[in-house]
Specification:
single chain; alpha/beta; Rossmann fold; six-stranded parallel sheet; two-stranded antiparallel sheet; 10 helices; globular
């Protein structure tokens, strides 16, 4: 094993409260949208790409208008994340620091362009990661983005850490082991290893 590729939401942090604030501040100006979004609404979209998220959150809207709303929400979301951040899981920075001394670390997330950069900007964690990718930049699936990271950085034996069934599928697509972050948002029945907390990564990987 030479590297660790991480999912972001539900694996390293929980950003939902900030995202919820951002999106509700955006959609309230559109009369076609009759209610505010809830935390439960966002929890059911974790691990999905934006087109799937938009259909789940706004199924009653015309597709073109829905895409416009989603684009507006994503832009505002990035700004909110830059200023407010999210909830890092306990000991996240300490664990990343320890892991980065032995392994190359990466992020592959199903997010819009600018989201990972906003995460870095608020929490100052960019120093631990070598590279990152997302469909907002590439238009690719998570599995394809994992393979892109592997090829671009000449990785030989990475693992992927994530919290959803989609993360499992992406790891299997890329042909690499999957560690299930059970504390996250998803339910996964198949995995190569499992952690109950982010901190457990150190013991799973036999680090002090």
């Amino acid at each position: 094993m030479d590297s660790i590729i991480f999912d972001l939401d539900g694996t390293i942090w929980d950003p939902i409260d900030t995202v919820l604030h951002a999106w509700n501040s955006c959609i309230k100006k559109h009369r076609q949208i009759k209610r505010e979004l809830s935390r439960a609404d966002f929890e059911q979209t974790m691990g999905l790409q934006m087109p799937e998220i938009s259909k789940k959150l706004f199924p009653h809207l015309d597709e073109n208008f829905r895409n416009q709303v989603i684009a507006e929400c994503c832009d505002i979301e990035n700004e909110f994340i830059k200023k407010q951040g999210g909830h890092l899981y306990p000991n996240a920075e300490e664990v990343l620091n320890t892991l980065s001394k032995k392994y190359k670390l990466f992020i592959v997330s199903n997010c819009q362009d600018g989201y990972i950069e906003a995460f870095y900007e608020f929490h100052k964690l960019e120093k631990f990661f070598v590279d990152y990718e997302n469909p907002g930049r590439t238009g690719l699936s998570k599995g394809e983005n994992i393979k892109l990271i592997m090829n671009r950085n000449h990785l030989v034996s990475p693992i992927y850490v994530g919290d959803t069934e989609g993360d499992l599928g992406a790891a299997r697509f890329a042909g690499i082991p999957f560690i299930y972050a059970k504390y996250g948002f998803g339910q996964v029945t198949e995995y190569d290893n499992v952690i109950e907390t982010f901190d457990e990564l150190r013991s799973v990987l036999a680090l002090p």
